[in-house]
Amino acid sequence: MIGLTHYIVLSGILFAIGVTGVMTSRSVLKILISLELLLAASNLSFVAFSRFNGDYTGQLIVFFVILVAAAEVAVGLAIVVLMYRNFSTIQADDLKDLKW
Amino acid sequence: MTSFFFYFFATVLILSGLAVVLARNPLYNVLSLVVAIFSLSSLFMLMEAFFVGVFLLLVYAGAVLVFFLFVVMLLNLNSPPTITAQQGRFRVWGWLLGLLLTCEFVLTIQSFLKAQALEPSTVRGTIETIGRILFTEYLLPFELTSFLLLIAIFGIVSLAKGALNTGASS
């Protein structure tokens, strides 16, 4: 029987994969994609807790998380395109104008 | 039957998540994120969260992933960047930290939830039940979210306009 623990462990593994992606990737686009993986992992644990506690609030929070993630992706990708126009690179390491 | 589907979709989810992180080509990153979102939505369906599952498919696989594909296409990102020695060292540390985090999560969750075995409830996230709560109890956050989306649109338009203006003047 599939219990709450299965879903939470799966969510934890997915979150760790996403964190690894954010830390190891150099391209800003790939960091944004890995952030989507982090949000997906937290959504999974929200729905699992909602299912096993008998409360709809978790699913509502997932609804709001998806909406806010859509706004975040739109603004983030606009910034990535601007960054490519101004510096003709999307590597996070190449942006060191503020470093002294 | 349910456990078979759970393990199947969980395996697909983890493999495609690894592909998101590991693939060199940005196009493959985005496409494996599509696979991950599809299997996540299937897991939501298994937990009878129907509305949220369909919403995830519509917004992510329908809108967000198209954004990503457009940007990959627009920037023409085909060649993977070369990695210097310093970046390689950072990458090793990142993988070690990620592995540590995985072990920590699994151990913590196993020890925490071993005692209590919760039975699945009769919660069914249909459009009717979710909509009823959304438009009564959570009406203010709902309206605020629409306001947030409006502000995001303003931000994107002003970013694009600024880029156009500097492009015209230079």
- The average pLDDT score of chain A comes to 87
Q: For the record, give the distance between the C-alpha atoms at the N and C termini of chain A, rounded to a whole number.
A: 57 Å
Order of helices and strands of chain B: HHHHHH
- Number of self-contained structural domains of chain B: 2
Q: Which stretches of chain A are poorly predicted, pLDDT < 50 over at least 5 residues?
A: none
Tell how many strands the DSSP assignment of chain B holds: 0
Fraction of helical residues of chain A: over 70%
Q: Assign the CATH topology of the largest domain in chain B.
A: Four Helix Bundle (Hemerythrin (Met), subunit A)
Morphology of chain A: elongated
Note the overall shape of chain B.
extended
What structural class is derived from the secondary structure elements of chain B? mainly alpha
- Residue stretches of chain B low in confidence (pLDDT < 50, at least 5 long) are none
In angstroms, what is the radius of gyration of chain B?
21 Å
Q: State the largest interface.
A: A-B, 70 and 82 residues
Strand content of chain B: under 5%
Overall description:
The complex is a heterodimer of chains A (100) and B (170). In chain A, helix 2 (28-53) runs antiparallel to helix 3. Chain A contains 3 helices and no strands. Chain A is mainly α and 100 residues long. In chain B, 81% of the residues lie in helices and 0% in strands. In chain B, helix 1 (2-22) runs antiparallel to helix 2 (26-46). Chain B has 2 domains: 1-79 and 125-137, Four Helix Bundle (Hemerythrin (Met), subunit A) (Up-down Bundle), CATH 1.20.120.1200; 139-170. Chain B is mainly alpha-helical. Chain B contains 6 helices and no strands. The model of chain B has no long low-confidence stretch (mean pLDDT 83). The chains are: A mainly alpha (100), B mainly alpha (170). The interface between A and B is large, with 70 and 82 residues.
Strand and helix layout:
The complex is a heterodimer of chains A (100) and B (170).
Chain A: H1 4-24, H2 28-53, H3 57-87
Helix pairs in contact in A: 1-2, 2-3
Chain B: H1 2-22, H2 26-46, H3 50-75, H4 85-113, H5 127-136, H6 139-169
Helix pairs in contact in B: 1-2, 2-3
